Amino acid sequence: MKKIAALLLAFIMTASLFSGCKKVDTSSTTAATDSNTIKIGVFEPLTGANAAGGEAEVEGIKIANKLYPEVLGKKVEIVVADNKSDKAQATTAVARLIEKDKVSAIIGSWGSGYSMAAGELVKKNKVPAVGASCTNPLVTKGNDYYFRVCYLDPFQGTIMANYAFKSGAKKAAIVQEVSNDYAVGLATYFKEAFIKLTGDPNSVVTTVNYNTNDQEFGAQLSTVKAANPDVVFAPGNFTESALVMKQARQLGITAPFLGGDTWDIDEFTSVGGKDVEGATISTFFDDAAPVTAEGKKFVKAYKEAYPNKNMAAVTALGYDAYLVIIKAIEAGNSSEPTAIRDALAKTKGVEGATGMLTFTADGDADKNSAIIKEVKNGKFTYKDTVTIAK
Amino acid sequence: MKNKKKRNVICTAVLSVIVVALIYYANNYLDAYIVRILNLCAIYTIIGLSMNLINGFTGLFSLGQAGFMAIGAYTVAIFTLPIDMRSTIYYMEPMNGAIANIHLEFVPALLLGGIFAGIAAFLIGAPVLRLRGDYLAIATLGFSEIIRILLTNWQSVTNGALGINKIPDNANNMWWSFGISIIVLILISLLIRSSYGRAFKAIREDDIAAEAMGISLFKHKVMSFVIGGFFAGIGGGLYASLLGTVDPKQFYFTLTYNFLLIIVLGGMGSISGTVIASFIVTGGLELLRGFDEPLTIAGYEISLFRPGFSMVIFSVLLMVIVLFYRKGLMGRTELSWDRLFNFFAKIKSRFSPKTAREGGAK
Amino acid sequence: MTLELFLQNLANAIAVGSLYALIAVGYTMVYGILRLINFAHGDIFMMAAYFTFFGIADFHLPWYFACIFVIVLTAGLGMLIERVAYRPLRDAPKDSILVSAIGVSFLLENLANYLFTGKPKAFPDFLGLMSTISLGSVTIQKVALVVPVVLIICMAILLFVINKTKLGMAMRAVSKDYEIARVMGININLVIAATFGIGSSLAAVGVILWGMKYPQVSPLMGVMPGLKCFVAAVIGGIGNIKGAVLGGFILGLIEVMLVAFLQPLTGYRDAFAFILLILVLLVKPTGLIGEKTTEKV
Fold it and tell me: What's the whole-model pTM score?
């Protein structure tokens, strides 16, 4: 009897898939043809290894939605889909947003890998996507429908090399998360730029590797200590990097540590504690001194919504991604996906929280400077702005 | 008897026509999201079947399918990637000269993927298959991880952690995924019904007795393992083509847990069970997505529903099945026309007036 | 490589090895009695880490109280899992219980992900064990000195219980021959529950020390340690407590030294643990100091 019941259940479930009927799903209305709302899809990792980053971006998007709830006289609705920090799930999440929820544009994702997984889908279905913090060059290359409001990995690596050189470092060591394309990308560009700046092919004294989810870095750091660098560039996800710095300090390495934008999040400082004092990163946004009026507006709204939290930089990027889409809808006077795409491509001088936004031919934000922050007293505080002449 | 056979053949023929018609309809008229899910179901069926062959039919507790999938996936990814794309994707370190200019069409690449996976299975299986149940599980799991780590580090061939994307989309098409899965289904069914299949089952029941009866344990265990690996490789190749992107992190050994769930749910030892279960699990995961979104009833948000809830429900379901419905849906039996007709006959007889007068059928 | 560097790495290896040893003992105990690879051991370890985090960071319990709280809670969790997920399957074919273990592991990970979110939390520091001291040119964390001591104490207590108490005798009997022990009137349920309780407590002690060396608590933190400690237990001889300790040290040593001496192979470090496992399984499946058992037909 239970076999029959199970078979029946299986049949019903499969049949329901075919009929496309909706399940318990509250954040999107059933009428996709509701002409009074414009839907913007959001796919982010909300569970799994990268949940922190995804959540931070969604915070920014939600605040932007609160401040700009309408465009062209219609309400803007956010539809969030969790990609579970998994590529296969990323493709189904985006497919669902496009097909089921019939969104006009998409924002996402934290983690270039997931954005790249979704790339072909958005291109094929002609729905524009704006990435907030995915920095891998391949996300937008060759894809007319993908844009991003942040700068690229090659740029970040070069910026950090410039900063290191500017601060007087002659020898650098690299500690890279070899199974993370973001880290490897940053490290490679840092090395290139640093060698060029110092003119010394041996200025990168040693490069050591570690894997994602590693917790033990003693051996690698001992090698770094022995090489005695002026500065250590250690791009990687904040989860491992906090531990790397802790163990480095415990070993007695006093050289300053440089990293990338992934460290700009609460969890880095809370896990790292006092061992991450002085960690310096390149990032997108400084909530203490926003460069635009829009930025000030954003910071105020954030502090109202989350009075006790430290803002992650990607939150500001989420905000900007939303904003740039809204402005494109206004500029193109249409909520049709292809029209939005064309308007996005023409984005010039849009005031966002992280600065003035203009898209290059590839769809990347045209930025030539980055904000440098340093951990002081357990918080990331503004240190410097590094500009690279184009 | 002859009538039954004729009836079965006719039924199968009719069913085939219906299936073909459904696939045609689905491919052209259903929205792409559902098609994608169905394709994923088909691919998971292939891999589930490959795992069931090894675990369910031969009784070898192997947790290595993710590794074989990875080999198949990467083979397809590397060889179907258009040559002009290669330098852009392999931007860290250029592609290994030996393979940089080899480009294969989808089908040869798929078969090659299966063959490589099969070879890997042979190399792994030969030494390891004589281990007992739980040791074999850990050894195969270890190999799956070793394969993954190799893929992560072999930068010039696999692009390392960067993964490969922009893989040409050949498989997001129900003809391919369902077509291949039906072929795999038929092949495995034939295998099981052959003398080899009987040998596998004998090994599953009691391998010492089987050996005493003259069945070569080594030959048959390795055969089962290699064939399972081959099909997992094919499934992996389809998977890569469907997703359009691969990277080593996708093939963490926890991926194998998905397939374990499928074969346990379906019944370890039932082909039809695996097929049904893979549709339930893959479709179910999507349906359960609704639980990840906040539920607001009359303006009150129920915080029970937040991201992660669907996976909790999923794991609880797995535990329930393992504890209470150990045999899964089908146990070791198969769905067949005979059973179906017997079932209907039984129901009919319950309602027939004669037996009702006699106090019900038993 | 300089002597200095070598000593530093050696100190590190001993610390890592002791941690692995502590957790491997828990694994091996369960295997010895039940012949079950408890895949969920790594996740019990992870839950203990969360208990510690909440005990100290949220409830602000003083450290001695928190430690007891965590150990008791984890032992309880272990016994609960045994009661619910393993006992009903004791008479089922071997594979079912393995699948159940995998299922429990999966459930714990997803539960932790759902309840505590995937964002990593900072493991609390108590007794200042996270700070370091220098012995000559070698810098070690204070906790690295404590771990071997705790390990020795735990081993002493454990060996005492196993060799000198009635419960221990019952455990040894059950691990020698399950059926006969049952026939002889030994309360199997009690023995097994006690085994799980002790094994989980060891995991809790292990994580309290582990967390101070690697202070990051996340739902998947137990996966790799769990696998590696299983490898350690197998290398030493599964079912054998001294073997687990030996295996833990060997694994820790090899891992650290591999990365120290062969830098370019760092990416393959985890692979080496598995390669070692497979080699041991093929060459000497009973491990370095395990006993040979024949399979009765």
Answer: 0.83
